[in-house]
Write a structure and sequence with these properties.
The protein is mainly alpha-helical. The protein has helices at residues 12-16, 31-43, 64-81, 85-93, 100-112, 116-128, 132-144, 148-160, 179-190, 199-206, 226-234, and strands spanning 210-213, 217-220. It is built from eleven helices and two strands; from the N terminus they run ααααααααααββα. The longest helix is centred in the N-terminal third of the chain and has 18 residues, at 64-81.
Length: 236
C-alpha cells in the first residue's frame, strides 16, 4: 500500500463533537468528562492536574506507567466510538484511496487485539498523513515503554499538527462496532480494567491477511469487507 497523501487531519476531540454514544446504560460514567480528558492530554498536558479525576473511579493518582496505559486504552475506546470510524476504515480498505483516519481506527483495533507492533505501524502510517490522534496514541505507546525520547517526539508532533477546519460529517454507514460492544469498552475503561473485544471479533482481527515489513515483520492488512464484518459479528 502506498503512503497516504497529505489529508485533512482528524482528531479524537473533533470527532467526539459529532459522536452520539447512548450513555443511559452507564449513568455513573461521565462520557463528556472522558472526552475532555483525552483532548486535554493531547493538547494541554500542562493542565493535567485539573482533570485527574475525569475518568478514574478512585481519587488516588496512578503511577505514570499505569496512567499512560489507562489513557491509551481510553483513547482507543473513544476512537472506536466515533460515528466516522466505519467510513474511515472502509476508505482505508480501498487501496486506491489510503486514509490516515482509517489507519488510526485499524491501529485501535489492533491495540485491543494485543498486537502493539502492528498498532504502532498503522498509527505511524496515520501520523505521516497528519493525523493528530495517531500521533497522540504513539506518544502514549512510547511513554508506556519508558521510551522517553520517542514519546517526546510524538507529543511534539501531536501539538504541531493542526486540527481540521471542519468536523467530518456523520456517514450513513452503521457504527463500526455494535452498541453493546462500544458501551462495554467504555465501561471497562471506567472500571480501570483493560478494554477487550469479544472473542469472535478478536478472532477476526487475529486472522487478517498480513504483509511483510522490514521493521515490523508481519503487519495485518485491512480487507474490503472488514468494516461490514466487524459490525455484523459484533451484532451476534
Amino acid at each position: 500500500m502506498r503512503q497516504p497523501a497529505t489529508n485533512t487531519p482528524s482528531t479524537v476531540e473533533t470527532r467526539l463533537q459529532d459522536a452520539a454514544v447512548d450513555t443511559s446504560t452507564y449513568d455513573t460514567y461521565d462520557i463528556e468528562a472522558a472526552e475532555r480528558r483525552v483532548a486535554v492530554l493531547a493538547l494541554l498536558e500542562e493542565a493535567r492536574e485539573h482533570c485527574e479525576s475525569f475518568t478514574r473511579p478512585h481519587p488516588e493518582p496512578l503511577p505514570p506507567h499505569d496512567q499512560a496505559v489507562h489513557d491509551l486504552d481510553l483513547a482507543v475506546a473513544l476512537i472506536l466510538n466515533t460515528p466516522q470510524a466505519a467510513a474511515s476504515l472502509a476508505r482505508l480498505c480501498d487501496t486506491t484511496l489510503p486514509d490516515p483516519d482509517g489507519a488510526t481506527v485499524l491501529g485501535a483495533l489492533l491495540h485491543l487485539a494485543e498486537n502493539p507492533d502492528a498498532a504502532e505501524y498503522w498509527w505511524q502510517y496515520a501520523a505521516g498523513g497528519d493525523n493528530r490522534t495517531a500521533a497522540f496514541c504513539l506518544y502514549l505507546a512510547h511513554k508506556i515503554r519508558a521510551e522517553h525520547a520517542d514519546a517526546d517526539h510524538w507529543r511534539r508532533q501531536a501539538r504541531r499538527i493542526a486540527p481540521p477546519s471542519t468536523i467530518p460529517a456523520t456517514t450513513a454507514l452503521p457504527p463500526l462496532l455494535a452498541e453493546n460492544v462500544r458501551h462495554t469498552l467504555l465501561a471497562q475503561c471506567h472500571q480501570a480494567v483493560p478494554p477487550t473485544l469479544p472473542t469472535h471479533l478478536r478472532t477476526l482481527i487475529d486472522h487478517l491477511p498480513t504483509a511483510d515489513d522490514e521493521d515490523y515483520a508481519h503487519i495485518p492488512q485491512p480487507h474490503l469487507r472488514l468494516s461490514q464484518d466487524l459490525h455484523t459479528l459484533a451484532s451476534l
